[in-house]
Amino acid sequence: MTITVFIRYQLDPFKRDLFEEYARRWLTIIPRCGGDLKGYFMPHEGTNNIAFALISFASLAAYEAYRAQLKKDAEGLANFRFAEEHRFVLSEERSFLRQVV
After folding, report:
1. 3-class DSSP assignment, residue 14
2. What strand order describes the sheet that includes 3-11?
3. What tens digit of pLDDT does each residue of 9-62 get?
4. What is the spatial distance between Cα 5 and Cα 38, in angstroms, rounded to a whole number?
5. Which of 30, 36, 81, 97 has the CA that lies 20 to 30 A from 59?
6. Can you tell me whether residue 44 is helix, strand or coil?
7. Three-state DSSP class for 100?
8. Which is it for strands 36-41 and 89-98: parallel, antiparallel or unpaired?
9. At 100, phi and psi to the nearest 5?
10. The pLDDT of residue 101
11. pTM
12. What is each CA distance from 26 to 1, 41, 68, 71, in whole angstroms?
């Protein structure tokens, strides 16, 4: 069963450009580490401090393998440090979803 991780980010609205840079970096890192990236979604109209990401995996075990790979990936670690240094993500929530067929 495929699962999709839905990530909801609360952003500092004055640092959206930094979050967008952070998200663009993941576009190559996530697939290399085993995630099927569906996309990052930035605020456009309306609420200016909420962004989303969707990443699919074949199973929870595949997700765990991906997380382990991320911890060894130099670019992934650098991107995590970038987020911590600039503090543009105020909070992050993860939900694990399955598609209704």
Report:
1. helix
2. 36-41, 50-57, 3-11, 89-98
3. 999 999 999 999 999 999 999 999 999 999 999 999 999 999 999 999 999 999
4. 10
5. 81
6. coil
7. coil
8. unpaired
9. -80, 125
10. 83
11. 0.92
12. 24, 12, 16, 14
Helices (H), 1-101: 16-32, 60-70, 74-86
Nearest CA to 6 out of 47, 43, 38 is that of 38
Give me 10's structure tokens: 């609360």
User: Which residues are paired to 80 by β-bridges?
Assistant: none
The tokens describing 21, both together, are 């840079």
- Beta-carbon neighbour count of residue 71 at 10 Å? 11
Average the pLDDT over 58-86 and give the result: 97
Which CATH architecture does the domain made up of 3-98 adopt?
2-Layer Sandwich (3.30)
Domain segments of the chain: what residues? Answer: 3-98
What are the Cα distances from residue 69, in Å, to 30, 38, 43, 46? Answer: 10, 19, 29, 36
